[in-house]
Amino acid sequence: MTIDIAAAWQASQIEPLLQELDRDLVGLKPVKTRIREIAALLLVARLREQAGLSTEPPTLHMSFTGGPGVGKTTVALRMSGILRALGYVRKGHLVVATRDDLVGQYVGHTAPKTKEMLKKAIGGVLFIDEAYYLYRPENERDYGQEAIEMLLQAMENQRDDLVVILAGYQERMNVFFQANPGFHSRIAHHIHFPDYTLDELMQIAELMLERQRYRFDEPARQAFREYLQLRVQQPHFSNARSVRNAIDRFKLRQANRLIQQAAAVELDDLTRIDASDIYASSVFRRASAAPVPGHNRQQDIQTS
Fold first, then answer.
1. Distance from first CA to last CA of the chain, Å, rounded?
2. Which of 25, 27, 177, 190 has its CA 20 to 30 A from that of 36?
3. pLDDT of residue 297
4. What is d(CA 163, CA 244) in angstroms, rounded to the nearest whole number?
5. What is the pLDDT of residues 269-301, one digit of tens each?
6. d(C-alpha 72, C-alpha 167), whole Å
7. What is the three-state SS of the chain?
């Protein structure tokens, strides 16, 4: 008996989903490689099943760790599509939840909330962001443990049509798994999302601007690199999310600058972000006013 794996891969329509992931996200090569490996594993498992080879169903639940704005939700969405293409879930939709969606504030409130989220996610993927907030042992009246027990039960009993992805900061997730070994034993794939490098953040900004039909001129491009070098060292930096927020503010300043000129402008003026739109950021003022305490994330940024 011969099985044409190449034909099966093509027929599954997985490759277009993986290529879409490549287009949507800059960098993250280890993550993309791991997702491709998981897709290959699941396809082979399906072919083995169809060939009558005795095998246990693969464990599909996952853990995504990393900082904010590194693409965890986007990858979860693509993963849901891959699972649907291979027939592991019926619908392939993504339901995003946090503690507030699952845990109630009084007795009898948690169970119906958790059941409702599980009901919404059946046939697809339930993505629980900052999952460690479900567990608050310091509060005796906290109802997170009830939600945890219901999730564990669903992950076991409904695994034929529900995939759960737990996400959050790596260190906190490690503590969470140590305190809740039931989760760790049910998760087969732990994927870490690294922070973006400085060059990758620049590339993300250029892509965002291009999609919105804006652009940096060369002085603005240099100004934005200086902006990033300072911003990554300041509190609450969120990778691509912070880049997107910064671009929104640059566009705001550009619009006000053009209005204040009170003159006719060229089409190029409507698309161009100037260096002045970037240097007006409070990031530069904060950097010159005082050093930022705490960990210097710039030491973690490797430029090519």
1. 49
2. 177
3. 46
4. 30
5. 999 999 999 999 998 887 776 554 444 444 444
6. 8
7. CCCCHHHHHHHHCHHHHHHHHHHHCCCCHHHHHHHHHHHHHHHHHHHHHHCCCCCCCCCCCEEEEECCCCCHHHHHHHHHHHHHHCCCCCCCCEEEECHHHHCCCCCCCHHHHHHHHHHHHCCCEEEECCHHHHCCCCCCCCCHHHHHHHHHHHHHHCCCCCEEEEEECHHHHHHHHHHCHHHHHHCCEEEEECCCCHHHHHHHHHHHHHHCCCEECHHHHHHHHHHHHHHCCCCCCCCHHHHHHHHHHHHHHHHHHHHHHCCCCCHHHHHEECHHHHHCCHHHHHHHHCCCCCCCHHHHCCCC
What is the structure's pLDDT at 290?
A: 55
What is the edge-to-edge ordering of all strands in the sheet holding 62-66? Answer: 94-97, 125-128, 163-168, 62-66, 189-193
The pLDDT value recorded for residue 265 is 85
SS3 content of the chain, % helix, strand, coil (to 5): 60, 10, 35
Per residue in 133-151, pLDDT (tens digit) is: 998 877 767 788 899 999 9
- Rounded CA-CA distance 13/261 in Å is 52
Q: Is the model's pLDDT at 44 over the cut of 70?
A: yes
Q: What percent of the chain has pLDDT over 90?
A: 65
Q: Which amino acid is at 193?
A: F
